[in-house]
Amino acid sequence: EVDMRCKSSKECLVKCKQATGRPNGKCMNRKCKCYPR
Questions:
Q1: Alpha helices, DSSP H, located in the chain
Q2: CA–CA dist 17, 27 (Å, integer)
Q3: How many domains is the chain partitioned into structurally?
Q4: Element holding 23 (H helix, E strand)
């Protein structure tokens, strides 16, 4: 999980790619969830 606020899952794709190296993630409860870990 990335502690970043989001409005859409598209915002998380960039953040997840930075965090995990893969642009896989969803915006849930206004926070980004990245997977797989």
A1: 9-20
A2: 14
A3: 1
A4: none
Q: Which residues contact 11 (CB under 8 A, 6 or more apart)?
A: 4, 27, 32
For the entire predicted model, the pTM comes to: 0.70
Per-residue pLDDT tens digits for 1-37: 577 899 999 999 999 999 889 999 999 999 999 987 6
Look at residue 36 in the predicted model and tell me its pLDDT.
79
The residue range of the domain holding 12 is 4-34
| Torsion sign (Cα): 15, 1, 9, 36 | positive
Which tokens sit at 29?
Answer: 């409860």
